[in-house]
């Protein structure tokens, strides 16, 4: 009974503390792990044709930063994982910001810096985890010293593997072994009013357990869904359930006001024989349904008045990505610009009555688990 009460109390606290709203932009990953991809100038033309207004890249590629100058496309850039140890030093962080950010701003509208990517679940995470928050603090300090901290937010994307429990959403909690550093991270995000980024792939859950997880539930199709037994909230898709599990996990650490955003989600159009569900049809359905919900300014059941910001993976199929076949087949487009499948990005952005817009995420080195 005490467990039930605590979950209900936590739910009510979240509802009362998160009565805010916002209209943000859907993102699309622009990966560069290929030997046949168009130059940034051509990519910019493609993005403009799709009416893209935001971009997120996983490095500070000077060619991209230069090409996107005066384009009115907002960019989030990334510090590579191997740089964290160096950038713990405030002077090194200042040098990095002076070299990689300041020369391009404000002509290139840089709005955020992602410090590392999936640091908590990296192949060798121990050192990275200990370096993460100090590097974030140093980079934020460098931005403040240069008068840029009010324009550029600092955060880090994590995978769903940081969760110990995720079902039902109200049971969401972080793994105990990362609790100390996670608490430090949340304190930093709270003090700087920065979002918590999560990489969430419903495809992985379905692939691993297709006999138990309904395909319609992970594809945003019409289905019975599930009801959280403690909050009584109804979920008609897995992505929203995953996000709310993260919200609860954060609240359990004492930081209920932090916004959660999805830094990566997507569905592969092709896979190996053991990659169940990796088809063009499913990829098109997932992306199309997600787009429609984004253009409707939807929030999750726990935060219905706060539009969930989502970055779709990916813009291009990337032929040099290692791993299973699916890794090279998340793109909406082939490298030559032909569509893998058509979800009507530009049509949605012009016919929608909402003020939402389409945006883009770029991954230079990203390899999903």
Automatic annotation (TrEMBL):
Keyword presence, Hydrolase: yes
GO MF annotation: an example: glucan endo-1,3-beta-D-glucosidase activity
Lineage top rank: taxon: Eukaryota
Keywords: Glycosidase, Hydrolase, Signal
Stretch forming the signal peptide: 1-25
Keyword Nuclease among record annotations: no
SUPFAM superfamilies: (Trans)glycosidases (SSF51445)
UniProt-listed Enzyme Commission number(s): 3.2.1.39
Reactions performed catalytically: Hydrolysis of (1->3)-beta-D-glucosidic linkages in (1->3)-beta-D-glucans
Coiled coil: none
GO biological process: carbohydrate metabolic process
Protein family (similarity comment): Belongs to the glycosyl hydrolase 17 family.
PANTHER family: GLUCAN ENDO-1,3-BETA-GLUCOSIDASE BG1-RELATED-RELATED
Name by which UniProt lists this protein: glucan endo-1,3-beta-D-glucosidase
Species per Swiss-Prot/TrEMBL record: Ficus carica (Common fig)
